[in-house]
Sequence to fold (497 residues):
Amino acid sequence: MIDAIMQRLGVPTALYRQGDYSVTSPTDGAEIGRVTLQDADAMEASIGRAQQAFETWRQVPAPRRGELVRLFGEQLRRHKEDLGALVTIECGKIYQEGLGEVQEMIDICDLAVGQSRQLFGLTIASERPGHHMRESWHPLGPIGLITAFNFPVAPWAWNAALALVCGNSLVWKPSEKTPLSALACQALLERAMDEFGDEAPKHLSQVVIGDRAAGERLTDDSRVPLISATGSTRMGREVAPRVAARFGRSILELGGNNAMILAPSADLDMAVRAILFSAVGTAGQRCTTLRRLIVHESIRDEVMTRLKRAYAGISIGDPMQGNLVGPLIDAQAYDQMQSALGTARQLGAQVYGGERQLADRYPDGYYVAPAIVEMEGQSEVVRHETFAPILYVMSYREMDDAVAMNNDVPQGLSSCVFTSDVREAEGFISDMGSDCGIANVNIGPSGAEIGGAFGGEKETGGGRESGSDVWKSYMRRQTNTVNYSRELPLAQGITFD
Ligand code: UN1
Fold:
């Protein structure tokens, strides 16, 4: 199956069959490929090629650059099912979500194509006669992209589509857990480049499946003005200071610890559906996964009853076979989940679910029953992001306290309130409300559209990707002052004769 998919996606067999690093599927632990891990020297060479490609690509007019991204979007449309299936096989998310991830790529390509004709600057009034000021946006350089296993293709595309129309080249270091999906994206982009013609330099986009040293070389190289990294807060803590030490820029999209406040006036049917999707979708392995439910004490019992019923109906199993929850990525993820549940129990929490499933059938696949954990307050275990389907349920009496709980974690990615009270809704998204990069009303915290800026505050890293004016992050801002007079007046009225 993998070979047929990879063939249709245009990945040469040598790239994913002949290496020495084994790639396995979390579905059953079986080997699906063997790739070659590149070292720091290989990364060095890739950055050199990316630098050369940048010199050429930045001269191509932006709307033409958009045409390449349009062709790439067409490739993605054509191969949506194959790429979606590959994502499912390689990272274990269910096929519906694999397709959704590819759709996010298509959507960002559409956005980037439009953006390619809108890399607008400003004209600014000058204080001096016969002068005008302008703000221009110029291509930045080779962009380094680091991505995580849980979204092996979409975050790359959010960055790549915009970075390409902005005139940059790309060096991508994907997670070692999901290299085949990266190779497939690269192959589709190369097809689009072939259709596009000679204007696109050969090494405009490169994938480097690398070891740790290769990643470090990428973050340390001053030829790479921007590193955009998605992953854990731990990873961000290593990347950010290295990039800052050479005055590079970074876009960091790190951990989340996303809450829902559930108010007494909420539509509970809607809320329960939203909880289910956002807490157990992708087996709790989204950075936007719902991890904390802060429910009004007056409806806590009813909500718990409904949640337990909904959780009892979840089908767990092969992510290609119409189940709602697939496997965790690996044994380590399973151990971390069990350890968090153990800590919660020690703290007196009531734990429902969380047990390993299907172990007889898949001894090397780590399926779990999603867990609901009733907690009294936000202990350390709640404040920590465990990348697994654990939903902590806590209650509140006053909305102000609920908002304070929402904010009282180190992470600041996503958040939401379910309420029919307009004061509560508006208050939650006001200056005094949620401190997260994403704050929603009557929608769960996950499943963001690409049109908005995506990312969060505090330990989430502060970066933004995708829509809104995020394209500016991939360009260099330049302020121009032009004197079209015959005088040379100085600013601030200074005389200097
Ligand atoms: C991630 O988990 O790293 O909002 C990204 C969402 C998706 C992206 C998640 N659009 O859940």
